[in-house]
Amino acid sequence: MNSTLETCRTCQSSDLTLFLPMGNHPPANMFVRPEERDKDQPAYPLNTQACLNCGLIQVADQIPADFFRHYLYVPSGAATMHTHFAELAQVLEKRAQGGLIVDIGCNDGLMLSAANKQGSKTLGIDPAANLAELAKANGVDVHVAYFNPQTAQEVLEKHGPAQVISTTNTFNHIGDLHTFMTGVKILMADKGTFVIEVPWAKAIVETNEFDNVYHEHVSEMSLLSVVKLGAFFDLEVVDVHKLAVHGGSMRVFMRHASANEEPSQIVGQMLAEETAAGLTKQATYDDFAARVEKMREELLAQLSHMKKSGLKIAGYGAPAKGNTLLNYFQIGTDTLDFLVDRNPLKQGLYSPGMKIPIYGTEAIEREKPDVLLVLAWNFFDEIYEQQAAFRANGGKFLVPLPTPRLVS
Questions:
Q1: What confidence tier does 405 reach under pLDDT thresholds 50, 70, 90?
Q2: Which domain holds residue 362?
Q3: What is the pTM of this model?
């Protein structure tokens, strides 16, 4: 499989720059079972490119076929996401007005469960059969499949057109966005709305979030990249919400051009912000790569000093972004004794690549680390509040992004 791309995944420009080659990584959610710990894992080059025509950040799609049919990430483990998705469900119903809401990549059904409770008509689409079972247990109807034009046609024939199609932190997983968008056009009603929620490339660049890039996050979107993608399909961006979640995200609303909806003022404002931030300039990405290298040096120096001082260090969280950081910076069991994660699907496994054991959060009380390296930094406020006992016992947090800082 190719380790770099020749054209942009959204606007199809060939004006690309390779600015952060991070070496070979296993898929960031390919956690290791205990019996497989001594076996070699497949790993693929993680070469980060930027499109200088639209500001899309991308990597080549190199994950194994059918990888998403059994998936271990669920949003329900973070209290923040319960509140976030309850708010999103309300936003989508205002657009749907009683019509069908289809959520592509519905995962464990957290958002659609909230939508059902408010009386919305919903359907989830997700290839992960294990997560579909969790969603169904929460009363969510799930069509188990990868989303493509054939799936769109099947859903259309069975359920009718969707008044709202949503995809939250899934659109950035799609290798072939043009085929995906063909499916959206098939399924979406004439007066429907397509809602995309993803991390915002501008926030990623400005706060050094290199770890948002991994083999499942094949694209990090700028708003301009979404605008240019939509133009291929006569879809227009009519509104955007800025979100704090996941280090800075955007919720983009797209409609058929024939709907003639006047774009909100914020659409032009955010496009201007991207221009001012230099998302189509080579120097922007050169500077980004230099800041990541400086961060790596500072974080490794702090961890080394702590170990030499006899401190016990563990990691909080086993998110995909954390595995990018651990593998790129080569932080393993010689530095971190273990990781903790609230997601029971990950507990008892080992992190991909560095193979650090993952326990439940009760291990913090049992093992008594002195420092927690916060890999799930996007939920740090929540983690800080939850770990009052750890703080009371003198524990400290080492937060790696945007620059390493120690929080007591």
A1: very high
A2: 300-407
A3: 0.91
